[in-house]
Design brief:
The complex is a heterodimer of chains A (112) and B (109).
Chain A: E1 4-7, E2 10-13, E3 19-25, E4 31-38, E5 42-49, E6 56-57, E7 64-66, E8 76-78, E9 87-94, E10 101-103, E11 107-111
Parallel strand pairs in A: 2-11
Antiparallel strand pairs in A: 1-3, 3-8, 4-5, 4-9, 5-6, 7-8, 9-10, 9-11
Chain B: E1 3-5, E2 9-13, E3 18-25, E4 32-37, E5 44-49, E6 53-57, E7 60-65, E8 70-75, E9 84-91, E10 97-99, E11 103-108
The chains are: A mainly beta (112), B mainly beta (109).
Chain lengths: 112, 109
Amino acid sequence: IAGITQAPTSQILAAGRRMTLRCTQDMRHNAMYWYRQDLGLGLRLIHYSNTAGTTGKGEVPDGYSVSRANTDDFPLTLASAVPSQTSVYFCASSSGTVGELFFGEGSRLTVL
Amino acid sequence: GQNIDQPTEMTATEGAIVQINCTYQTSGFNGLFWYQQHAGEAPTFLSYNVLDGLEEKGRFSSFLSRSKGYSYLLLKELQMKDSASYLCAVRDGDYKLSFGAGTTVTVRA
């Protein structure tokens, strides 16, 4: 059972570098999300996509971009990483009547 | 945006009951969720309330009062494996889900 796969699991990155976090789901869910989780702040929504071809901004979108070329993939790109983007990033998807989120295992990113 | 408040930490004894409260202010409301997150792992879905009242699922129950902007998660017959963070989340009028900072529950023998 795959569900949602994120890559890389962990990455250390120099400030100023470009980085793409990959997210793939095999559940054919329409909606996908990117959250970052920081100690004491909880999960904060970065970007979301309600369906392939559409994206929207969440609570903390600055410095991040996303694309949704197809149903399965939802990559998150940091164009020029900064230390404040050090965080754990979770990709999630949802579908159905309740619409609960299914999360990937997370990507731990450290920007030095 | 959303304003979601829940206690930072709670401690309880194995076999006991713990109630985690969550208050929220939201622009539009389309449901309240509770998630469990063990350290170093991804959150997993526990419960969902969209109408007022109590939803029971085994040892876990969740209550919602929309007029008061209030929910609680009740954990009964606590087990050591219930030590985790519990996240309250509210879905707004645009169907986006916002999370509280989470409540860390420690179960002691």
